[in-house]
Amino acid sequence: MVNLEALIQVNRYEWEIPLSYRPDMRVPVRIFATRSLLEEIKDDKSLEQAVNAATLPGLVSPVVVMPDVHQGYGFPIGGVAATRLPDGVISPGAIGYDINCGVRLLASQIEYESVKDLLSNLADSLNRLCPSGVGKKGHIKLKINELDKVCLDGSRWALSHGYASEQDVRRTEEGGRLDGADPSKVSKRAKERGLQQLGTLGAGNHFIEVDVIDQIFNTQAAQIMGLVPGNLAVMIHCGSRGFGHQICTDYVREFQAAVKRYSIELPDRELVCAPLSSPEGKNYLGAMRCAANFAFSNRQLLAHFARQAFEEALAGKIPNWHLYQVYDIAHNMGKIETHQVEGKPVEVCVHRKGATRAFGPGFQGLPSEYRALGQPVLVPGSMGTASWVLIGTSESMMRSFGSTCHGAGRTMSRKKAKKTVWGEDLRKELQARGIHIRAGSMAGLAEEAPQAYKDVDAVVETVYKAGIADKVARLRPVAVIKG
Amino acid sequence: MHPQSSSGFREIAHTADWELEVWAPDLITLLSQAARGMYQLTGMELSSKPRVSRLITLQKKDPETMLIDFLNELLYLVDSENLAFDHFDLQFKNDQLNGQVDGAKIASIQKEIKAATYHNLIINQTGQGFITKIVFDV
Prior knowledge:
heterodimer; A: tRNA-splicing ligase RtcB; seven-stranded mixed sheet; about 25% strand; B: alpha+beta; Archease, Possible Chaperone, Chain: A, domain 1; five-stranded antiparallel sheet; four-stranded antiparallel sheet; about 25% helix
């Protein structure tokens, strides 16, 4: 474990593990955190994993760590690493098994006060219409050739099949579709797993949440996004399901041989990688993009089902029950981007694992209505606590490869959470606070208890004060659906 | 090693994922104990019948790779066929690990494992056999 005394404090919100800390580091590690947040991770392996990540070949300085960082299984959750094209590496473990795990936010003109007595019914409708839970199959059963189209078209597949609007697709990162997806690089067994999982939430820390817009910090941005204080919003958190998990499993396995082929030495086998220009690297990139597009389509379908649930529960009882897309972001992803490095534009592969793209104002890839603001960033808190809407900044482009935090970050092990929290008690406690819970597993609910996570307000305050995101709105939950 | 039994498993605290310590007198038993531990982490229960069998064939590689390949093979069968296994008849033969696993459809499962990972994975040989720690992505 890295002793905090080894860190150099740059300012109140920024720290560095210098290159001199360990001889195999290729770049330093930059950490966005307060002293208090660092104290929470001093006994886990987050920073050691960040140092390990700093040994990857072809890195552009630095490896970045976000304030919601926690220990992962190789690359830290809450980490960003950029490798230079063409011969820098791509590492599946630095993107994660849940490729394009991400968040979607939908806003509404529904006033909480006018529907609070209907929330229990709404939670029931969401729970019934949005497939969730371990092993739960979706409403849509694909054949292989149709799955290939999902891989290629992402959200556009959902649009062409009537599950999306143009606004939905336009207000999704990358327009809901990464170029360069190659279904021929996806294994047969990954496809088998994906055939019946499109439009499913999964389990674990994935959820659908109904929120109330609680506080506005940027009136102009909130107005453009359609965030009205006291109105409902819906947040959807999930990824590429078993399809993506299998793709990462396949390529972590394949890259065990690749590192030997390319004479790459690593401190952790889960960091295995291959040069971006190699056949292995290109194959993984093609497959990863398939999983990313599957996940964009997955969240699109869940948004469609959520709209159906709102209609079922609220139509005829209020004048306008519709949900409007605010944005959809990825927080486990590898993207080819251009960043300024020592004053020059450099093409890099940015690995974000538990970190969100946060491009600043002027980025042409944003919908026109958001271009002057910066990219919306969606930061879910833990159950029962706040979630946040932020926007990217020019500063993030300079200091964190256009990245910011992704959530609250865990502090307590699942084992301890199960021992100290009783799922049914937690459900009742949240219910008493006006938060309707529908969960497939009480044990799973206990593992996701709020006390197992960092203070999301402290995480957001850190990225805000560090300048790598700006606040737009704070949301509070009133219903949570978990698998 | 754990004096209470020559083979077994126990959960170790891990911040975001699950970690299992597994021990056994030989590698084949280590694989089956790891599988049992993994299933237990998910809170899985098997249907009583009908019983189902699957043949397993994996290329023989270093022990750590074999372990991860085996566990991820089982996770694939959980997700693709809703199957899990409680009896393992495996052997190393020539350059392969092969054999038969027996089990049934999953009656209920509480939690999902995305993958068994190579993170810090070392199978250590002791005087009583083998011991290792496996981190699972949840």
